[in-house]
Structures are given as C-alpha cells and as structure tokens.
C-alpha cells in the first residue's frame, strides 16, 4: 500500500514527499510485481549410462522436508517425494531412487533407457529447476587373439536389443535378443550365444575386428560401443611352438591337403590293384590267346 503524508499548516494542506505522479507509478509497479508469474527455471543437462546411477541435481538446496520430483511422460507424474521426512518413489522407480532434502538431489539407481526424460524439482511446492536426463553409451576397447572369445553385456532390462558389427566389409547383425530369446545370425557359424545377460562371440577371426554396438532395437539408442581388435596368435620360433600353432593357423589348408592326400593315396591303390589284376589275370590269358592264334609251320609238321 502506498501512503502519502499530508500535513496541515495554517489551514492549508500540502503533500509532503515526492511528486504525486511518481508515487502513483511506484504503486503500479509494486502491484504488477506482486501478481507476476514464476520465473523461468534453468534447464540442467543430465547424462547417465545404462546400469549405473543417474544423479539429478539443481546445484541448489531446499532447507525443508517437503521435496518432490516429477517426470514428464504424457503429463507430469511424481517419481519421488519427501513429506515430513517420509520419502517414497512411484511410477516404476520404486526401490531405485534416493532423494535428499539437503542438497535437493535425486539419484536413480540402475538407470534404464526408459528412465530418460524431463524431470522437474519442487521445494515446498515451488518449481526450482528442470533436468533433462539423457542416456549415453558405454565405450571401451578390446584386443583379443584369434581363436579367443569376447564378452559383451547386453544391459537390456527386458527391452529388445540388437548387436551389430561394423567394419570395412559392411554392417552385420550378430543377434537380436528379445524377451529372453536370442535370434542368432547363422552367417557367424553358431559362434555366438547369449548367457547370463551377455553375448559371447567365440572362435574369433581377423574378420571380426571392428566396432561392436549394442542398441535398443526400437529406438536405435546406443547402449554400448566396443572397438574390437582381433590379432593373430603369437608364434613360437621353436619347432615345438610351430607344431602347436600350425593347425590353428593353417587348419583350412591342412584340411584341404588331407583330402588331396587321401585322394592321391586312393588313386595309387587303385592303380596298383589294376596293374596287379592285369598282370595276374589278363596278361596270361592274352599270351595263351596269342599262342593259339599263331599258325604252325607245315614243314615242321612233316
């Protein structure tokens, strides 16, 4: 309320203080400020990797016991709230949230792709800040020897995921894991299997080198990126080491040589048998036939 001090002196009244017009303008500004809406909250970015903890914080404190976080799906729904020290979670995040009234932070345990989205924090019913939580992929590098196996955690949490291999030869789907069932790509020769929530790719070859990605099948959101490098096995310079690694290095060539050797041996055996049969059976008959066919000398008969 704006008040002016009016004094009477010698029966006349006058306004003591600033100009009346200035006072009116000041009153209007104060009234408009009292009815102004809430200020726009700053949007903080948040990132988390699947399977790890996601921390939502506004870099503020809420000196009270009434804290609430909401998430926007179709509409804003409460995901965690504390009232008079009693905290609870809701909307699929039960037992996976830790809410602090001291530093006004929300921790989501075992983060999943479907936990991504826009979160709004309230302190005593007043909107404090917004956090846009997004997922980022795990990244690592593996170096394996030919013939070894590689393990890739799927981190699917019941969602359908796809494992891809990308290299200079192209992009290849290794498997699609859906509701506990693994749909394997037979082009990899049954070298892959899913066990304990991880993809196992065995008997690695040099052609398996490349980027292995695990992604959500529907949204194509990347969950894991792995740079796989397959190198040839180390060769021992000794004769013993060469003999040990020779079958693994040249097993295809040895297999082909084995078939060729078997074919040659069979051919030699057949040729020897044919020669023996010819000399033992056919050649004597030919000799006897020629002997009977030769005409006798009439002079010798006389």
Second rung of CATH, namely the architecture of the largest domain: Sandwich
CATH topology group of the largest domain: Immunoglobulin-like
Q: What overall geometry do the principal axes of the alpha carbons give?
A: rod-shaped
- Could you say how many structural domains there are in total? 3
Uncertain ranges: 1-9, 12-18, 29-40
CATH top level class name of the largest domain: Mainly Beta
Largest sheet: 6 strands, mixed
Q: Percent range for helical residues? A: 10-25%
- State the end-to-end CA separation: 171 Å
In percent, how much strand structure appears in the residues? 35-45%
Helical region count? 4
Radius of gyration (CA) equals: 44 Å
Strand order in the largest sheet: 3-11-10-5-6-7
State the order of secondary-structure elements, H for helix, E for strand.
EEHEEEEEEEEEEEEEEEEEEHHH
Given helix and strand content, the structural type is alpha+beta
CATH superfamily of the largest domain, by name, is Immunoglobulins
Question: Would you kindly provide a written description of the structure presented here, covering whatever features stand out?
Answer:
- A hairpin with a 2-residue loop joins β6 (76-83) and β7.
- The longest helix is centred in the C-terminal third of the chain and has 43 residues, at 251-293.
- Residues 1-9, 12-18 and 29-40 have low confidence and may be disordered.
- The chain has three domains: 5-32, no CATH class; 43-135, Immunoglobulin-like (Sandwich); 138-231, Immunoglobulins (Immunoglobulin-like, Sandwich).
- It contains four helices and 20 strands.
- It has 302 residues and is α+β, with helices and mostly antiparallel strands.
């Amino acid at each position: 309320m704006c008040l002016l001090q009016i004094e009477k002196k010698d029966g006349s009244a006058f306004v003591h203080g600033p100009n009346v017009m200035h006072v009116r303008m000041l009153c209007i500004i104060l009234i408009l400020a009292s009815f102004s809406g809430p200020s726009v909250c700053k949007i903080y970015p948040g990132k988390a990797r699947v399977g790890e903890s996601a921390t939502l914080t506004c870099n503020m404190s809420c000196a009270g016991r009434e804290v609430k976080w909401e998430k926007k799906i179709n509409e804003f729904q409460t995901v965690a709230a504390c009232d008079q020290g009693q905290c609870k979670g809701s909307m699929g995040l039960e037992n996976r949230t830790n809410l602090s009234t001291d530093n006004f932070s929300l921790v989501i345990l075992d983060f999943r792709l479907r936990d991504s989205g826009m979160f709004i924090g309230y302190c005593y019913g007043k909107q404090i800040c917004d956090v846009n939580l997004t997922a980022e992929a795990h990244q690592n590098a593996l170096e394996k020897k030919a013939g070894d196996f590689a393990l890739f955690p799927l981190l699917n949490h019941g969602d359908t995921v796809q494992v891809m291999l990308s290299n200079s030869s192209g992009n290849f789907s290794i498997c699609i894991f859906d509701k506990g069932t693994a749909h394997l790509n037979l082009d990899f020769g049954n070298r892959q299997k899913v066990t304990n929530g991880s993809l196992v790719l065995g008997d690695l070859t040099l052609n398996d080198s490349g980027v292995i990605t695990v992604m959500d099948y529907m949204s194509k959101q990347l969950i894991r990126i792995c740079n796989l490098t397959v190198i040839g096995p180390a060769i021992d310079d000794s004769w013993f080491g060469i003999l040990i690694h020779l079958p693994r290095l040249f097993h295809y060539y040895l297999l082909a040589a084995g078939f060729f050797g078997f074919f040659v041996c069979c051919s030699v055996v057949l040729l020897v048998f044919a020669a023996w049969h010819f000399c033992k059976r056919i050649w004597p008959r030919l000799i006897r036939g020629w002997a009977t066919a030769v005409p006798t000398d009439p002079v010798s008969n006389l």
